[in-house]
Structures are given as C-alpha cells and as structure tokens.
Design brief:
The protein is built from eight helices and eight strands. It is an alpha+beta fold and 226 residues long. A hairpin with a 2-residue loop joins strand 6 and strand 7.
Length: 226
Amino acid sequence: MHTGPLLGSGRTADVYALDGPWVLRRYRDGIDATGELAVMSYLSASGFPVPRIGPPAEDALPTDLVMQRLTGPTLAEALLAGTTTEAEGAELLARLLRELHAIPPRLSQDPEDRILHLDLHPENVILAPEGAMVIDWLTAGEGPPALDRAMSSLILAQVALDPSFPAGARVRGLLATLLPAFADDGGVPAEALARATALRADDPQLTAHERAVLDEAAELVASLTG
C-alpha cells in the first residue's frame, strides 16, 4: 500500500493518504500505536463507532496505524458552523460516553471498570455519513466511568477559558449543557474531577495556557456541576 501525501498534523501524529479508503496515522517521537490498535479493534468488535482498522502499510513502523478514511466535519466544526446546536452536541457526547462505558473492560478484572477514552471532546468526534465516529484513542485506558466524564468536562473548561479562542463562550455553554446530561449517568464527582486534574497536569502535550488555567478549569467544572 503506497503512502501518499500528508493530509494533516496534530499534536502527536501526522496523517497521510493511502490507496483506497485508508489513511496512515504516524505518531511522532516514537509513540507506539500497538496499544491503540488493540483498543480500537476490541471496540470495533463490540460495536462501538470507531474507524475500521486497515492492512499495514508498506514498511510499517510501530508508530503506524492504518485506519478508515472518514469524511464529514468534526463535531467542533459543526458546532462552530451552527449546523449542530449546543444541546445536540452535549447529547451526542453524553451518549457516546454512555455507550462506551457499557462495554466491559478489555484487561481489568475489576467489574466496575470500563474502557475510557480520556480525551473525548468535539474535535475527536467525526460526523461521518454513517454516523458519529470517535477517533484518537492514544490516551485510552480502563477505570471508573466518572473519570472519563470528568476528563471531557475539564478539557472543555480549559478551552472555554482560552481568551485566544473566539468561541469560548459557546464552549462554556456546551459544558453547561453537558454536565446535566452527565448527571443521569453518575455525574462528575469531586474525586473524579481531582483525579482528572492530576492526570491532565501530567500530560506533556499541554500548552502553556492549558497548564496555566488547569485549576481554574477544574473550579469551573465544579461550579457548573454544583
């Protein structure tokens, strides 16, 4: 399978075109994609909406992941364009986490644990013609579902507090709508928010601004939860 032109770059990976309906996601800095491949394969077999895994590319590296090429806007793009409302976006995020947390863990022996995305926000949801697809499973783990809800809330709060982002008020509105939707599934308990904040603080990919507003973001989530 021939590796084509660069399609885009994120914080940790570059995406290249491949033959047919596939793309190559290649991580930088030696990040191994093996764990992400295992999680996505497990979730796909469980019926959760993730991109299909494709055959390895030529001269595949441990940093490589071949997956289905998706079309359609991200949920973030749809929210900014006004084609999806804040209420619809919040409902979708809550539903995706609810469906994810209904799947038994792949590795953990704790019956309370579930698969956690730990980075589910509007930029990681593609509104494909066949339905919403969740991407970017690098940080996925297993644990209590409340931690996943807390992490998604915290990430949105950090964006809402970014003065350079012109739609910060709309992100705050999305967060304010999302937290009541989470309440039906157990909400965002204080201990889960504290753990999410600690995990986020240890993330080497955070920008200087994200790190600076982390505590304020946690306070925002707590205030909207209460």
